# Entry
Amino acid sequence: MSFAIELVISFFLIVGGIFVLVGSIGLLRLKDLYVRLHAPTKATTLGLGGVLIGSMFYMHYAQGYITINELLITLFLVITAPVTAHILAKVALHHRVKMMQRTRNPHHVETARMQQAPQVLEDKSKDKDSNTIK
Amino acid sequence: MSSPSSVYSKLLPMPYHTVLLVIVWLMLNSSIGLGHILLGLVLGIVIPWICAPLRMHQPGVKRPLKAISYVLIVLKDIVVANIEVAILVVGPMARIKPGFVAIPLDIHQDLPITVLASTVTMTPGTVSCDISEDKKWLYVHVLNMPENEQEVIDLIKSRYESRVKEIFGC
# Structure
């Protein structure tokens, strides 16, 4: 394996590692469940993507064959990650999980958990500073 | 299913799924040996037999080229989303202004809405939370709301929904 190849592989591994780390930091630092959902669903997709690309390069140059399993892992990840996030958010809505004080439009929670159309409180274009439920 | 009961549609109720299952099976095993092809074919034929009665009619992809360009746009947006969210997460928490928006939908079939909701979750700072029963509103949680929430709605409608609509031709 030449130095350049090693460099490329380490680049992808490090970038992937950084994004996975940031995802975990997000889980730790962010304040409520809805906001926390953003960190792992996104940071982890690119993080794992980077690791998988690194793995493909490594397999190709060190072992001498091309693996397609990495592509499949990426595909399954892209299909399943949004569904998981959606279900988690939905469950949180149904349990009326507490949200950050400054969350805007918390009145949507009530209609969303009943799966009804949103109530129009006021002129839609107008910015509304809302107070939290509870 | 009360389709014209030819032998063909009985044997292979979902031909595309059969092909897909065989290909994924071969990819999983990373080999194209005869044994794996046979086993893949058995799976590819038996699984659709079991699943066909559960199938609901969904609109097909009308414009495959548009679909490919859509995938590329979304991939690019995923990378941008990752960087944006990473910066927000590491930066001061006071900068994060979360909020909910309800997005009026122009598409009303299950598959296009699923595609749109998944895209929304994968892309910059938005997670789809729920959908109204009449399939006319998609509730989205936004990580960092701009002052005017209409911006988020317009972005999602013009950037993703219009394209999904074209792809499925509805």
In short: Residues 3-88 of chain A form one domain. Residues 104 and 129 of chain A are 7 Å apart (CA to CA).
